[in-house]
Design brief:
- The strands form 13 sheets. A five-stranded antiparallel sheet has the order 5-6-7-10-9.
- It is built from 18 helices and 45 strands.
- By secondary structure, it is α+β, with helices and mostly antiparallel strands.
Length: 826
C-alpha cells in the first residue's frame, strides 16, 4: 500500500520533518512546503491539491490543525519507536517485541458464528431432583431475571418459568487445576473449537433449524455451560406433555369385547395421535434430518395436544441404543430395546454394527427408516406388549439367524393385527405391514401413511387439507441424527494422567489438548496450570510502578526506593535510594546510556544511570516548583524527542529536557490531578481525576483533542492503555471505556472497585485493582465496532497497584509490598 505523501514534495508524512497540516479546503500539505508556497494575496495561498484559494494564518502553518489520521497511518506502517519503556531494542529488535498473548483456538469468524448461541451462565436453573448422565434428558427452567437484558437469546420469547430440557454435549475445561480462571464464554468456545468440523456442522444445523420456526420441532435455544457439573448442554424447549402417560390412557380406550376389536372411540384416538406423530416427523424431514430411531421419549406435546419431535429426546435415545448394543449380546440388546418401546430399523441397525464386523448393508438410510420405526410405535399402540413379548423366544428358535427371525416376527405381527383389527380396517393393516418391509425403498411414504390413518376419521371427499399433501419432502442429503456425532457419548476433556505417553494430534477429542512445551505463550500456560510464580520481596511499602529494560526489572514503592532485579533469574541486584518522599512513578529510557527515571510525591525527578555498575547516587535530579495547589508527581513518560513528561497534582503536564532538566513547556487544561500519561504515534495521552483524556502533539506540545463521554457523574481516570488504534481508560468505579481512532466505542464494568493498573499488549488488555483480581480481555472488532471479550481472571491475595506484561511474562505489584512474576515453565 502506498503511504500518504505531501502533494508538493512527495515525501511521506512522519510527524517530524514532514508534518501534515489541514487547509480550509480539507486537503493536507506538509508544514515545510506551506511555508514556501507564494502568497499572491495577503494571508491567502492556493491549495496545491485543488488549486482553491484558502486563508493562511499570519502566525504560519504551525497553528493549522494536524491531520492525525494521516500521521497515524504513516507511523503505523513505518513505526519509529518512541522511548521504549518495556525493552532494550538493541537486544530485542522491533519485530520481536510484540507477542500474540493467546493462541488462536478460534478465529473472529468462528467466534461470530457461535457467540450468539451461547446462553448466559446464569440463564438456566437445573432441577435438583434430576439425575443421570449423558444418556439422560435433564429438566430445568429459564431464569427470567437473568435473560431479560440478554441480547443473545432475544430471538425467542419466553413464558414465565419457561421449562427447558438439557442434554450433555461435552465436558467443559476444568477450573480447579488452573491459575487462570477462564471466563464462562471462553470455556464454552474452547469446547466448540475442540470439536471436529463434522461435529460442529451437525450441531450448527440443529441450532439453525430453530430459527426457521418449523412447526413440529421443539425449539433449540442454544448452548449452556453448567459450572456445577462441568458439562456443556444443548438447551431445548421443554413441553409439559408426556406421550408415555398419553399412551397409557389411550390403551384404556381400546375395547376388544366379543372379539370386535377397536371401538369407535379407540379408532378416533388412535388416528388423532398417529397423525400427530407423522406431522412432527414430516417437519423434521423438511429440515433435512432423519431421526433414525423413534420411541415415546422422542415426542412431546403442547397444551393444544399437538405433537413435537423432541430433538434432545432423539439424541438421548440414540445414545442409549449405542450403549445397549455396545455392552450386550446382539440378541439380548434387541430384546431389551423392543421391551422399552425403542425401535431401530434393520438398515440402521446393520449400519451401527458395521464397525463390529457385520457386513455392510446394501440399503441406504432414508426417510423410510423413520417410517419403519413409527409403524412399530403405532403397532405397540394397537396391539400392546404382544408385539414384542415373544421376541426372546423367537431368538432362541432361530439361532441368531436374524433374517429368518425378522420374517417370523412380521408374520407374528400380521396374525396379531388380524385379531385386533376388523375387516373394515384392512387398509390400515396393509399399510402398517408394508411399513415393516425389509427393503426401505419398498416402504410407503409418511404422507401415504397419514392419508390412510386420516381416512379413519375423515372421508376423502371432505378432506380439503390433503389436496396438496400427496408428496413428501425428504432431502437427498438428509442427516441421520441416530448415526450423527451428537448421538455419540460426550467425551471428557483430556487430563494430565491420560495424556502421559500419548501422541496428541488434536483430532477426536473435545477441547484443547495439553502439551508439555517450555515455549508456550503465557495465557495458554496459565490455562493449563503450567505457570510458575516468583515472589520478589524486599520493599517495605505499597508498590507504585514497574518498568523493564536493559536486562533489568525496576520496581518503585512508597518506601522511597527503587529496587532493581535481574530479568534472567529475578534475583535482587541493587536499590536506588535518595528520594525523600514516596516514589510515585518510574520509566525506563532506552538511549545510548540507558536510564531509569523516577518521580516522587515531593516533586522530585531523579535520573539513575543503568550501567555495568549501578550507581548509588542519581545522575541528575530536579524538582517541580511548589505552590498551594501542589501535591507531587503522579505519572511519568518519556519521548524520543528527549523530553520527560510529568503529570502533576497541580493539574498540569510539564515537559522537561532530559539533557539539563530544564522546564521546556507546561501544558494546561485538566481541572484536577493528572494521574496517568502514555505515548503512542507522536501523541501524548493524559488522564486525570477530572474524568477526561487530553491528546497533545509531541512535536510542538499543542492540544489536539479532548476525549470524554457526556456524563453527569464525575469519575476519576486512574490508568490509560493505548496502541495505535485503541485507547482504554480505567476508572475509579471499576469500569473501562474504549475509544478507537479517537471515537468513543464502548463502556463496560470489569471490576468491583477502582482499577489502579492497566496494560495492553497487542489485542490483550490486562486490568487489576481494588477487588484483588487481574482480568484479561481480548479487544477485537473493526473501525465501527469494538468487542472486548473477557478471557479470564487471576485471583490475587492483595490489591493490585502496578502491572506490566513484557516478553511473555506478567509483572504485578501489590499493596502488600510484594512483586509477583508469572511466567511459563517446564
Amino acid at each position: 500500500m502506498e503511504l500518504p505523501e505531501c502533494p508538493v514534495c512527495l515525501q511521506n508524512y512522519d510527524g517530524d520533518a514532514t508534518i501534515p497540516r489541514v487547509l480550509a479546503c480539507g486537503h493536507s500539505v506538509c508544514e515545510a512546503c506551506l511555508v514556501k508556497l507564494p502568497q499572491r494575496y495577503p494571508q491567502t495561498i492556493r491549495c496545491p491539491a485543488c488549486t482553491q484559494l484558502v486563508k493562511f494564518p499570519p502566525q504560519g502553518p504551525s497553528v493549522l490543525p494536524k491531520n492525525i489520521d494521516l500521521l497515524s497511518l504513516c507511523i503505523s506502517q513505518n513505526p519509529i519507536p518512541n522511548s521504549i519503556t518495556s525493552s532494550d531494542t538493541r537486544k530485542f529488535p522491533l519485530e520481536h517485541r510484540f507477542f500474540d498473548f493467546l493462541p488462536r483456538f478460534w478465529s473472529d469468524e468462528f467466534c461470530s458464528a457461535w457467540k450468539d448461541w451461547i446462553l448466559p451462565e446464569e440463564a438456566v436453573l437445573v432441577d435438583d431432583e434430576e439425575k443421570g448422565g449423558s444418556v439422560s434428558v435433564f429438566g430445568g427452567r429459564i431464569d427470567d431475571t437473568a435473560v431479560s437484558s440478554s441480547l443473545c437469546i432475544s430471538r425467542f420469547c419466553f413464558g414465565k418459568d419457561q421449562r427447558v430440557s438439557l442434554v450433555r454435549v461435552v465436558s467443559l475445561p476444568g477450573l480447579d487445576d488452573s491459575n487462570l480462571k477462564l471466563s464462562y464464554v471462553v470455556r464454552v468456545m474452547t469446547c466448540l473449537s475442540g470439536m471436529t468440523e463434522e461435529q460442529r456442522d451437525e450441531l450448527g444445523l440443529i441450532l439453525r433449524a430453530s430459527l426457521r420456526q418449523c412447526r413440529r420441532m421443539s425449539k433449540v435455544y442454544g448452548l449452556w455451560g453448567n459450572s456445577d457439573d462441568g458439562f456443556l448442554y444443548i438447551v431445548s424447549e421443554g413441553l409439559n406433555g408426556s406421550f408415555g402417560e398419553k399412551f397409557g390412557n389411550l390403551r384404556n380406550e381400546f375395547d376388544s369385547d366379543n372379539g370386535n376389536g377397536l371401538s369407535k372411540d379407540g379408532v378416533c384416538a388412535f388416528a388423532l395421535i398417529g397423525i400427530e406423530f407423522i406431522e412432527s416427523l414430516l417437519s423434521l424431514h423438511s429440515e433435512g434430518f432423519i431421526a433414525g430411531c423413534v420411541g415415546l421419549s422422542c415426542f412431546s406435546f403442547d397444551d393444544f395436544g399437538h405433537a413435537y419431535v423432541d430433538v434432545n429426546g432423539v439424541l438421548v435415545m440414540g445414545r442409549k441404543i449405542r450403549k445397549t448394543i455396545a455392552v450386550e449380546e446382539l440378541g439380548v440388546a434387541i430384546s431389551n430395546l423392543l421391551e422399552d418401546n425403542t425401535f431401530v430399523s434393520p438398515e440402521l441397525l446393520v449400519e451401527l454394527l458395521h464397525s463390529e464386523g457385520i457386513p455392510e448393508s446394501r440399503y441406504s438410510i432414508r426417510c423410510s427408516s423413520d417410517t419403519w420405526s413409527l409403524a412399530c410405535l403405532l403397532l405397540g399402540l394397537l396391539i400392546g406388549k404382544a408385539v414384542t413379548e415373544e421376541f426372546p423366544k423367537m431368538i432362541e428358535e432361530n439361532d441368531s439367524d436374524y433374517l429368518r427371525l425378522y420374517s417370523s416376527w412380521t408374520e407374528r405381527v400380521r396374525s396379531l393385527l388380524d385379531i385386533q383389527l376388523a375387516s373394515e380396517y384392512a387398509g390400515l393393516k396393509d399399510i402398517l405391514l408394508k411399513c415393516l418391509v425389509y427393503d426401505p425403498e419398498c416402504r410407503p411414504l409418511l404422507t401415504e401413511v397419514r392419508k390412510c390413518i386420516k381416512e379413519l376419521i375423515v372421508k376423502p371427499q371432505f378432506d380439503m387439507a390433503s389436496l396438496d399433501l400427496d408428496g413428501e419432502v425428504c432431502v437427498g442429503s438428509s442427516r441421520c441424527l441416530f448415526l450423527g456425532q451428537m448421538c455419540q457419548l460426550p467425551k471428557e476433556m483430556p487430563t494430565e494422567d491420560n495424556l502421559q505417553g500419548r501422541k496428541v494430534d488434536g483430532e477426536g477429542d473435545f477441547g484443547p489438548v495439553k502439551q508439555e512445551r517450555a515455549d508456550k505463550n503465557f495465557l495458554h500456560g496459565l490455562s493449563e496450570g503450567l505457570i510458575k510464580f516468583k515472589d520478589l520481596q524486599g520493599h517495605r511499602d505499597c508498590i507504585t510502578g514497574i518498568a523493564v529494560g536493559g536486562g533489568f526489572l525496576f520496581t518503585s514503592s512508597f518506601d522511597k526506593t527503587i529496587r532493581v532485579w535481574s530479568l534472567q533469574d529475578f534475583s535482587y541486584v541493587h536499590t536506588f535510594e535518595g528520594h525523600e518522599h514516596k516514589v510515585m512513578a518510574i520509566v525506563y529510557v532506552d538511549q545510548e546510556q540507558p536510564l531509569c527515571i523516577s518521580g516522587d510525591s515531593g516533586g522530585g525527578i531523579f535520573v539513575w544511570s543503568i550501567s555495568a555498575t549501578l550507581a548509588q547516587e542519581p545522575l541528575k535530579k530536579w524538582y517541580e516548583q511548589k505552590d498551594w495547589r501542589y501535591s507531587g508527581i503522579h505519572a511519568l513518560c518519556f519521548s524520543r524527542h528527549g523530553y520527560v513528561y510529568s503529570g502533576s497534582g497541580d493539574k498540569s503536564i510539564k515537559a522537561w529536557s532530559l539533557q539539563d532538566g530544564s522546564l521546556q513547556c507546561t501544558m494546561n487544561g485538566h481541572t484536577s490531578v493528572v494521574s496517568t500519561l502514555t505515548i503512542c504515534d507522536e501523541v501524548l495521552y493524559s488522564g486525570s481525576w477530572d474524568g477526561t483524556i487530553r491528546l497533545w502533539s509531541l512535536s510542538d506540545h499543542t492540544a489536539l483533542a479532548v476525549l470524554e463521554e457526556d456524563s453527569s457523574a464525575l469519575v476519576s481516570i486512574l490508568s490509560l492503555a493505548v496502541d495505535r488504534h485503541n485507547l482504554v481508560a480505567a476508572f475509579e468505579n471499576g469500569s473501562i471505556k474504549v475509544w478507537r481512532n479517537e471515537a468513543f466505542m464502548k463502556s463496560m464494568q470489569l471490576h468491583e472497585g477502582a482499577i489502579f493498573a492497566t496494560g495492553m499488549e497487542g489485542k490483550w488488555l490486562f486490568t487489576g485493582g481494588w477487588d484483588k483480581t487481574i482480568n484479561i480481555q481480548e479487544i477485537s472488532g473493526d473501525e465501527f465496532h469494538v468487542n472486548p471479550r473477557h478471557i479470564g481472571s487471576i485471583p490475587c491475595n492483595s490489591v493490585i497497584t502496578a502491572l506490566l506484561f513484557w516478553q511473555g511474562k506478567l509483572f504485578v505489584g501489590y499493596v502488600d509490598r510484594l512483586v509477583k512474576v508469572y511466567y511459563c515453565g517446564k
